[in-house]
Amino acid sequence: MESIIQQWGHLAVFIGTAIEGEVVYMTGIVASQIGHLSLSYVVLLSFLGALTRDGLLFVGTRRGGRMVSLNRGEWADKLTRASAWVESRPYWMLIFYRFFYGVSSVLVMAMSLSKMSFRRYIWVLVVASSLWAFVYGSLGYLIAPVILNILDWLGTYVWMTLLCLVAGFVLYIYLRPSRVAENP
Q1: pTM across the whole model
Q2: What pLDDT, on the 0 to 100 scale, is given for residue 181?
Q3: How many Å is the maximal CA-CA distance in the chain?
């Protein structure tokens, strides 16, 4: 398993960061703490993955996403709110959008639907992704030993942990409110 991580781990960090972001980045940092990956490559590839994802999302939304995104009610509402955020706080939003977990994609789409030029967006993207890679990388490096201790503890008590997770899931299924729609 270690040889697979060492052989394909950096590529997985790039692809995973381009798809998901923070979780894959933190996983790569933890893997670098135990010597399976190079920390400098993890940071660089996470930065490049974030650039790739947001750049493609910007271009894709600008080229054809307006019709797709505005024809769906849920996306239209999200884009309307995100566009208002981008227009009311343009510089702060442009630099810190990567830190708004869960809405950064919508913010990128809002930026692409605005009057912002692609050239300006590229500069913003490089600055925002650099800041994101530095801050998350630093935090990940600091908390990686804690994560490793938790994983070690979970490994010691793996059966107890799995039993608690299964029991919690069963309780959730049993105690959650019924979702059966009432007939009028």
Answers
A1: 0.72
A2: 47
A3: 61
